[in-house]
Amino acid sequence: MSGAETSHEGHEGHVGIVLVSHSGPVAESVARLAVGLAGGDVKAPVAAAGGTPDGGLGTSAELITEAARKVDGGAGVAVLVDLGSAVLTVKALLAEGDELPEGTRLVDAPFVEGAVAAVVTASTGADLDAVAAAAGEAYSYRKE
Amino acid sequence: MTAAAASVDREAARLTDLDSAIGDADHGSNLQRGFAAVVKVLEAEPPGTPGAVLTTAGRQLISTVGGASGPLYGTLLRRTGKQLGDADRVTADELRAALRAGVDAVAQLGGSAPGDATMLDALDPAVEALATSFRAAAEAAVQGAEATVPLQARKGRASYLGERSIGHQDPGATSSALLFSALAETAGEGAAR
């Protein structure tokens, strides 16, 4: 349920996307949504890291590192997160230095909209800067 | 660490009660799980220096807690441990300087300052009072935690409650006070209360 799930096998040269939520089903559903909305041409590997390993609500450093390693194809990994402890855990793992693959970045973006933008952009073969920028731009789309 | 774990164990229900008023009711059980894991790993492979004990413990908290207190306390212990380096023995002054670095790292990670009704309201005065004694630090932490009651929470889940968070003692500041009491106890100066 809460395990990391790769929607696509890691492709060399594509930025990997990791979606971290407090909830396993949310992370997995957003991964499916982003891959679905990206259309038939999803080349970027996407993995969900939601909830705790026992299926509860929360953040798991273990699931996050596992997901990041799974999608790492050498071009960098963009990590999108939902709330509180998800943000802090990824920041703390990045501060550790050797926990996450080299070129892993916490992307400041809205979770759902950012995930769609990141998957679409990464699938074009764009680099990590471009993926992060596209995901972050989702903040500028206001809803009223 | 064993004293901290025992103290967290004793008070887990109270921490969770405080957290159920303004948070998601998991602070006590999260820390209980985290510190149990810390004790286990320290018993299995006892690190050789105080600095290594703290970095190992911090690493364990980040990976096992599951809530925001994991990366926050994990960062506190890791940064403090790294600052201590690999010295075999540590003076009170060295510990105070290292804890200062640890607390600053927590403030940076959480983007918060004293007065936001977070663990910093206990940690910050405790490190200041450490210049006097371990006991003074523990007392300052307890007072700091109690002083969060009239504050409006500005960070974490409690911040969504806005003014309704006023009147509740912050669970993170409360657990921080427990940890400083455990430190004082271990240093042979008695717990704050």
From TrEMBL, chain A:
Keyword Transferase: yes
GO function terms (MF aspect): kinase activity
Domain called PTS EIIA type-4: residue spans: 14-144
Keywords, alphabetical: Kinase, Transferase
Enzyme class: transferase
EC number(s) reported in the record: 2.7.1.121
Subunit and partners: Homodimer. The dihydroxyacetone kinase complex is composed of a homodimer of DhaM, a homodimer of DhaK and the subunit DhaL.
Protein name: phosphoenolpyruvate--glycerone phosphotransferase
Gene transcribed to yield this protein: dhaM
